[in-house]
Amino acid sequence: MKSIAKMQPAHFADVMQLANRVHGDNYLDLAKLTGLYQRGIKHGINASFVALSESRVVGYRLSFAAGQWPQDEWCTVKLWPVTPEKMAYFKSVAVAPELQGQGLGSALLKVSVSALCQQGATAGLAHIWRESPGNAAQRYFSKAGAKLITIHPDRWLHLCKTEGYVCPICGSECHCTAAEMALTFAGNC
């Protein structure tokens, strides 16, 4: 049986292992995960969650509170459906490959949206990995109601050059494309 729980530091070792298994080597380390986790807490409300099977982490969703994440050159603010002060960010999600397709990603998104609404956000942005097997990531986010803003080639190349990220498809020179997508929370808050 699987359950959903608020992410806590006790989950970090399992979250890092799963993230690096699914997204590629050097995707997360303890310092990076700690900082990402803290961006998801606002007004005492944690917007990051884990899926557990017994006590083992089999999925996670890292989300950032509105106003607590940096906008960069891959953010097309002028096309967003809400102001930046109301836009949360869906940083990362992973589900153990053997459990994908069973609704864990959707369940994690649902509880994260609920927490982000309680924090005051009215929408959430994500940069979706278009090269995921069968473009499953974009299909999953579209099914949740997210709308495509724009496409960003070579979205993660800078991480290879600056942080040693190794893409599971491209290796140490990632040329994967991101779909910038926004999910409005109307009706979910």
TrEMBL record:
Keywords from the UniProt entry: Transferase
InterPro entries: Acyl_CoA_acyltransferase, GNAT_dom
SUPFAM superfamilies named among the record's database cross-references: Acyl-CoA N-acyltransferases (Nat)
Domain N-acetyltransferase: residue ranges: 2-186
GO terms of molecular function: acyltransferase activity, transferring groups other than amino-acyl groups
Family annotation (Pfam families): Acetyltransf_1
The protein's name in its UniProt record: Predicted N-acetyltransferase YhbS
Organism: Arsukibacterium tuosuense
Classification lineage: Bacteria, Pseudomonadati, Pseudomonadota, Gammaproteobacteria, Chromatiales
